[in-house]
Specification:
alpha+beta; Immunoglobulin-like; Methane Monooxygenase Hydroxylase, Chain G, domain 1; eight-stranded parallel sheet; six-stranded mixed sheet; GLGE_C; glycosyltransferase; glycosidase; EC 2.4.99.16
């Protein structure tokens, strides 16, 4: 007879003798007379008393009730898939159990009374087999060392289920998950995120669910009760946080502690029968109509007694006392039925049910991997400038004199003053001469035209060389060092393409595609032609190109670069990037990658799966309220676990009609939306000066900095006011935890199509001060006219006061208002284009 065939939901009690606990690793060793199935039922007894069962590859050090899948089988070691060749891990009679079985708080003690199915099972075995001969001498347990558990325990939980196999509780659709978990969801360390699953049982049986979070070493870091999101779909959700939020940089000495928390964390969903909840539901009805009262109250008393003695509930002495006294009081027949029920139906018991429930029929899903990445992988503020324009000036003859790495320190200081934490540089390599482009991409360049930094390579060198006009490699290293002193990371543009003068053209001609006439094909996107750029052909020597790119990236990392912004990665094979990123991050796990891929959604998502940490996106072209609401939810929804969209209002390649025509107000509106609509955002310098002249033939700036040196008058920035706004927005982001996650945005209904509103919220258990952080952002999308609207806030859904108003404070102006369910706003472009309200409810910090 198999072990399963005797599995019963009705618990029993029996004395199990002839066993020992070893002192080694607190492992349990059982001497049994019951044969193979006896081993299994001995495990049953241990599990019922909440010893800890571990997967050998995922040891926990705080005690949980995971069960090895093999325990659902019966027979000899080979039949159960158990180790057979090592005495220290064999399950033969009289030997220790393997290392994944540990007894929490039971080391050096002798259990004398256990619960299980041994009696019935032993009778069955005895009918067909002679009694096993005792071969091992054991010492009888001392009375003072006995640990007796007299309360009934639930039947053994059905273990972590095999793929395709259901447990006692059904668990489906664990999210987030894509492609059968081939690609792990990604979050930044300390970022709030949500997991969900469908959890249910047969009939009207009530269930509960718990999310279990484990760090890369397998240690359980949190057990979070899941709440019902949609009862009709049996959908449960929970919010989690892997590690603590950090602003440390890779070069900081303390970063070593952060690094320990990075890597693959795991989440498992535990489902369980809510015996207390089901009993209470029925008991209230039966007591109210006086139906079968004595049986109902007796069952409740027994349930509370069992709950008090269940190790899995992790109750302290006072909590166990509460349950036992309630169980005893329920049996006082001198009281009426309703009074007796109140001993089990009150706030104290309900609180225990929330935090320390009785979990019968416990079933666990498999582990789902979350890749936890370093600070700034999700939450970052970018600032782009061209080093050659920083410090540039006009000489006495009106000729432009370009800047270099020494003068470019001014760009670092401006980025720091405005609150940004990443500076992004275009390519800094030698620029080709052949077919060099003139102003705004003109085919003919003059003798003084500097050319485009994206036409990479000359006789002076290629991707591994600093443009001598900017300085030397030592100058660049000093530039990076100064950036690090200002707590700024340096991101370098990596455009994998060559000018006709690049050394690769002669050294590796097979890396380029040739036309029938033997000439090398330059880049084209008809009708556009890029005669100064040769694209790479990856089909002839993929491994050789990969090794060279890895070498070059490692060179720049050694110089101080910690992030690569990759130009047009979607025009190269995804597998190429997957290989390169894996090789680079294996040696330098702190390095991040931003994909500049304005292309089809499938390709952008594939690049994210391949290892790109962040992605440029279509935010610049999402300007209307419906467009923005859809895009905000897409960015901050399920897709945010795999693709981290970074919002840029403009770039050297992008100047939309909205920003072109809307002046200062449009720049302010788009900055607020970018800074608060996504955890990652960026500004291209000159935004502070409203550089909005557009080329007639392209959706980008005229006098484009890609093709010329710009001399700017930064003294005008304070007068215009955008620089001050950027600073305020970055200050808000640094102070409010609600801005750090891709998984906490809620669209708020507004009555005006020109006004958009959304909330961001991070729960108090995820903030440093223990207070829930809630921001409400309201933006006028009309850069020309005043707009008014009512904003509806679902106070209950956001956990805000529902019976009285709450105070909100505008983080941009300091003004305060009383808000509730429906609220009036009026925003004008010549006054305030937006409100950024912090909700101040007077909430006390969590302990």
């Amino acid at each position: 007879m198999s072990c399963r065939s005797v599995h019963s939901n009705r618990p029993s009690r029996i004395v199990l003798a002839d066993y020992v606990l070893s002192d080694s690793h607190s492992q349990v060793g059982v001497h049994s007379r019951t044969g193979h199935c006896g081993r299994r039922t001995a495990f049953q007894s241990i599990v019922d008393n909440r010893a800890t069962i571990h997967n050998p590859q995922r040891l926990c050090d705080n005690g949980t009730n995971f069960v090895h899948p093999a325990l659902n089988s019966c027979g000899n070691e080979e039949a159960c898939g158990l180790p057979t060749g090592n005495a220290s891990t064999m399950w033969t009679i009289g030997k220790e159990f393997p290392p994944f079985v540990q007894a929490r708080n039971l080391s050096r003690e002798k259990l004398h009374t256990m619960t299980g199915m041994e009696a019935q099972h032993n009778e069955t075995e005895a009918a067909g087999k002679p009694a096993a001969k005792k071969t091992t001498r054991t010492r009888k347990p001392r009375a003072s060392k006995q640990a007796t558990f007299i309360a009934e325990a639930p039947a053994m939980p059905i273990a972590i289920k095999e793929p395709g196999q259901f447990g006692r509780v059904n668990i489906l659709n664990c999210q987030p998950s894509v492609e059968d978990d081939v690609y792990a969801a990604r979050v930044e360390i300390g970022e709030q995120f949500t997991v969900s699953a469908q959890v249910f049982m047969e009939g009207r049986t009530k269930v509960g669910a718990t999310a279990v979070l484990k760090n890369p070493r397998g240690r359980i870091m949190a057990r979070v009760p899941m709440t019902v999101e949609n009862a009709g779909l049996d959908l449960y959700t929970a919010k989690l946080q892997a590690g603590e939020h950090s602003t440390l940089n890779p070069w900081d000495a303390e970063f070593a502690e952060v690094k320990k928390q990075l890597g693959n964390w795991r989440v498992a969903i535990e489902g369980w029968e809510d015996t207390y909840g089901a009993w209470l539901h029925d008991a209230r009805i039966k007591v109210d109509v006086l139906s079968d009262v004595e049986n109902t109250l007796t069952s409740g008393s027994e349930l509370l007694t069992r709950w008090a003695s269940t190790r899995d509930a992790n109750l302290n002495a006072e909590q166990r006392k509460t349950l036992r006294e309630a169980a005893k009081s329920m049996m006082d027949t001198s009281l009426d039925a309703k009074s007796r029920l109140t001993f089990a139906d009150n706030a104290d018991i309900e609180a225990l049910h929330e935090t320390n429930p009785l979990r019968d029929g416990l079933t666990s899903s498999g582990d789902h991997v979350f890749h936890v990445e370093r600070p700034k992988s999700s939450f970052s503020a970018w600032y782009q400038f061209f080093p050659r324009s920083e410090g540039a000036y006009l000489d006495d003859n009106g000729k432009k004199v370009q800047g270099n790495f020494h003068t470019a320190v001014s760009g670092l200081e401006r980025a720091k003053a405005e609150g940004f934490n990443i500076v992004y540089l275009p390519p800094i390599f030698p620029i080709g001469v052949t077919n060099r482009k003139g102003p705004d991409g003109a085919l003919n360049a003059g003798p003084d035209d500097p050319g485009s930094p994206f036409g990479i390579g000359s006789e002076l060198g290629g991707h591994d060389t600093v443009d001598p006009l900017l300085g030397t490699m030592d100058d660049f290293k000093a530039f990076c060092q100064r950036a690090h002193e200002l707590n700024l990371e340096v991101a370098l543009d990596f455009a994998l393409q060559c000018s006709p003068d690049h050394p690769w053209v002669k050294e590796h001609p097979n890396w380029f595609r040739t036309k029938p006439d033997g000439s090398i094909a330059y880049a084209e996107n008809p009708p556009k032609k890029y005669q100064d750029i040769y694209p790479i052909d990856f089909d002839n020597d993929l491994e050789g190109i990969e090794r060279e790119v890895e070498r070059i990236m490692n060179l720049w990392i050694d110089a101080g670069v910690t992030i690569f912004r990759v130009d047009n990665p979607h025009t190269k094979p995804v597998r190429f990037w997957q290989d390169v990123i894996a090789a680079v991050t294996k040696k330098h796990p702190e390095v991040l990658f931003l994909a500049e891929a304005f292309t089809r959604p499938a390709m952008v998502r594939a690049l994210s799966y391949a290892g790109f940490t962040q992605s440029h996106c279509y935010f610049p072209w999402r300007n209307t309220k419906p467009q923005l609401e859809e895009f905000l939810q897409e960015t901050n929804g399920k897709g945010g676990y795999y693709q981290h969209n970074t919002f840029w209002p403009t770039t050297p390649d992008i100047l939309t009609a909205y920003v072109r025509d809307g002046g200062v107000a449009a720049h302010a509106i788009r900055a607020v939306l970018a800074a608060l609509g996504s955890p990652s955002w960026g500004i291209y310098n000159g935004y502070e000066l409203i550089e909005n002249r557009q080329r007639a033939d392209a959706e980008e700036q005229s006098s484009n900095e890609k093709f010329e040196i710009k001399v700017r008058d930064w003294s005008a920035a304070n007068r215009i006011g955008i620089s001050k706004l950027l600073t305020s927005l970055n200050e808000i982001r640094s102070k409010h935890a609600a801005t750090t996650s891709y998984h906490n945005l809620t669209i708020l209904p507004s009555a005006n199509e020109n006004i958009i509103a959304f909330a961001r919220q991070t729960e108090g258990r995820f903030t440093k001060d223990g207070r829930t952080d809630t921001l409400i952002v309201v933006v006028n999308l009309d850069p020309y006219n005043e707009q008014q609207s009512s904003i509806h806030v679902d106070a209950k859904a956001l956990g805000l006061p529902t019976e009285h108003p709450y105070r909100v404070k505008d983080q941009l102006t300091g003004r305060e208002y009383d808000w509730s369910w429906d609220n009036f706003v009026s925003l004008a472009p010549w006054a305030d284009v937006a409100h950024v309200f912090h909700v101040e409810t007077g909430e006390q910090p969590l302990d």
